Structure formats: structure tokens, C-alpha cells
Amino acid sequence: MIARGESESRIALVDCNNFFCSCERVFNPALQGKPVVVLSNNDGCIISRSEEAKALGIPMGAPLHGQQEVIRKHGVHVFSSNYTLYGDMSARVMSILREEVPAIEVYSIDEAFLGLPSNFTEENARTLRAKVLQWTGIPVCIGIGTTKLLAKLANRHAKKNREIKGGVFDLVHYPDPDGIMAATPTDGLWGVGKNLALRLKGMGITTALEFKQADPAAIRKSMGVIGERMMRELNGIPCLELEEMPPDKKGVMASRSFGSPVETLQELEEALANHVARAAEKIRRHGLLSTRMEVFLRTNRFRKDQPQYSPGIGITLDRPTNATGELMSTARELLHRIYRPGYRYKKTGVQLAGLVSEEEYQPELLDQPRARIDVDRIVDEINRRLGDPKNPVITRASQGTIQSGKGWRMRSERHSPHYTTDWKQLPVVRSGS
DNA sequence: TCTGGGGTCCTAGGACCC
DNA sequence: TCTGGGGTCCTAGGACCC
Question: What is the pTM of this model?
Fold first, then answer.
């Protein structure tokens, strides 16, 4: 028997500590050891905290106005966010990581998954950590596991026990992984938020270990493919692959809150024009065209005493475009359709969706009638070529739904009884067999 | 009074086509 | 005996993430 972990590939999650605060510190070393926070776009919320700020009890995402007292009392250093700086620092960190490992997925501005070579040790991870710190000034934590979810979990442990672990934790070679999981609440898992944690609790599951050992059918029924996937990942069965090439963007949004509420159509139009211009500029920069636009309005959801109205409307564009003027007049029309006087609006925004690349877009294709494909015939043909017709290699999947309380319902019995939304469950076709 | 912005994925259900 | 059924596309909404 091969010991688990020896033969399997391992994934590391590298996560920058308190990234935005750490960036500010790089350019102002006097902030070292002092409480620091970085604010969201309109200086509304606290979105990054140094360890010292966390120790003062300042919560993540807290509105600034609620923290003024503790800020004044302890001399917390407060910064507006500077995304240009953070993006630049992020690129430096990622380029160092890229040099050290064969495969990397940049997951967010401050995180990356690494595909590790089999001879990569915990000591190598420490060296990597030291190198990033030395060259960029950014401290990171590294967690190692056999799946992305486990790497995340290992990273969480590394962060929580930074003094003992030195910012690195290898769950794969740790003697008691179940002990770690038993000490991890479900909402500490990547992908489990408040609501899913509650749902799990309803099933008597409160820790990562209980989740790992739960009844797969029950999880599938209650949480769908997402739950099933997480459970498999917890058990060391990879379901989430390393994505070295980021997939194409599906949509681009531009929105802002107003400093003080806005009531007139004209003010909304002006703000929206701004957002459309930003969004259009962004898709042009990526060489994309939009085929669909959505516009929305929001009243202040925190003001329970005021009437709420939060409409949104979408439209499929006549033709793919990224021209600001064109998009602007469409946005204006949409705004007019949803605007109602008498409300105090707090936010508006636009989303450009259904993005297609300029290069691949060929207008003449739109005029062609769609080719019809006879799927049954193709399936028969593949089975005929690949094997015994009485024992088909593939069957045609059909569509069905999960009915709450009633289990699985096929829309048709005519095709495969093995319908699944998870392609990994489909039979594998081997060439040459 | 003040309380971010930008994303992804999954599911359900309706319109529509043949 | 009988009321069609399969499939795609679109949209809305929920949940989560950083």
C-alpha cells in the first residue's frame, strides 16, 4: 500500500498576510508594529487590518464611522485604498512564485495556488516565504494539501499558528490531519459561508472533520454539487483543478455608492454615464465586445425606516459593441425604464455581460442559419467505432432536476439513467480499447 | 449621518423551437 | 387509455469569495 501523500500531487496556497496593510508598510516602514487599516472605495468600510488592528478588536468590513473611537484612542493609521500600488506589489509577489514552481494559478490579488513538484519540502516552502519577504517586503503564509480545499485549510492553520509554524504548514505530512479538521469549524472552510454553515449545522455537522465523514448522499441532497465537491476535496479527492490560464471574463461591472442620497434622474444619469465609460474602457482594454447590458439602482438598504426600491434591468444588445456612446444611450434608456421618483437612491451601476472577443467576433456568422446536429446519430456512431454495440462506451445524458424531498427526477427515461451534472462521473473513453 | 466594489458558479423556471 | 417531449437559451436569484 502506498502511503497517502507520497504518491499524490500536492498543492500549496500562498496567501499574503493583511495584504493591503502590508503594502502600505512597505512604503512606510515606520508603520511596522503599529495598528494600520485600509479603507474601501468611498472610505466607508475597513477592508484590511494589520495584526495590531485586529488585536484592538476592529472587525473585518466594519464601517469606519463605528470605529472612530478606537482609532482615535489607539492612534490607528488609516489609509484610503490604492489599488494601483496593490496591483503592482501583487505582480511582484506572483512573479517570484512563478519562478519557483512549475505551475501557478493566481487566484486573487493576494493569493496563488502552486502545483508542487514531488520533491518540494516544507523547508523549501520556508525558503520561498523568506524570499518573497526579502524581495518584496510582503509576509505570506503557505499551506500545503492534496487538494485546493485542503491547501486552504492548511493555510488557515499556518496563519492562526504563525509563531509555532513559522507561516508554513504541510497538512499532507502532518501526523494528525483529523485533529486539525476537528478543530476547524465548517464556516472556516473555503466555500462555506454563513448560510451553508447553518444548513450543515441542521444536519448535525459543525466541524470540517464531521463534514468530511458525512453521508455523501445527504450532502448531495442538501447542498447539491457544491457540497458534494467540497466533501470530496476534504477527503483528498481533487475536484478543483489548478487553472493556470485564467478563463475569459464573463462580465465587467462598474458601480459606486453616492456620498449622500440622490433623487433626481439627472444626477443618476450623470453617475451612470461615468460608470458606463469606465466599464466600456475596461472591455476595450481587454479587446472584448459586450452583447448584453444590465443597469441597476439601489436605495440605502441600511435605512429600514425609508422606502426600499432596488430595481435592475437587462437587455440583449442589437449587436456586440464596446463603443462608449452606443452603450451610454442604451444605459440611459434602461435607467429611464426603472427610475421612479420619490426614492432616495444610494447606488447605481452597470454590468457589461456576454463578453466576446473582438478577434473572434465575425458579424457574418450571425446571418447564417444554425447548423443542426443529430446527437443520437453521433452517439451511435461513436459507440459503433469504439466498441461492442451491445455494451456502449458512452450513453447520451439527458436533463433532469432534483426535486426537494423527492430525490432525483429524470425528464425522460429514454436516455441515460446515469445523468449527472458532474462530468468527472461520466465513463472514461480510452483510446485504443 | 456614516456602513465597498467586483466577481464566480449553481439552480430553477419560462419562452421558444422542432 | 393517454395530455408530447427533448433541448437550448435566457433570466433571476441565491450563495460565496476576495
Answer: 0.84
